[in-house]
Amino acid sequence: MCFASTKCATVEPGKTWELYPFCGRSTCVVSEDQPPRLLELVEDCGPLPLANEKCKLDEEKTNKTAPFPACCPEFKCEAGAKLEYPEIPTVAPVPEDAEVKSTTTAKSA
Predict the structure, then answer these.
(1) Residue 34 lies in a domain
(2) Least buried of 1, 24, 62, 98, by fewest C-beta within 10 Å?
(3) Contact 35, 19 (CB under 8 A)
(4) Residue 10 is part of which domain span?
(5) pTM of this prediction?
(6) What is the mean pLDDT of the chain?
């Protein structure tokens, strides 16, 4: 069972729950590795767009209390303007056979 902290409840693998008061949902999944582990797959609206004076939050279409994904913000842009999003850095997975290195710092007396 996964623990859904926003509901203060346990959830069976394969089940999904809303992350209210946040805009998102989670699903309890079983990993494919051995031994299998329980994981929480989180879906959300992604990053907010970069500031743009020609694009504004459409408050009439944005419903923050709706279930995901309808709760995600919607934007309205002037003609010719478009939303730009921040670049999200990614981290390459560590190969299973990678050597673990440790560093020790010693102080002299």
Answers:
(1) yes
(2) 98
(3) no
(4) 2-77
(5) 0.69
(6) 88
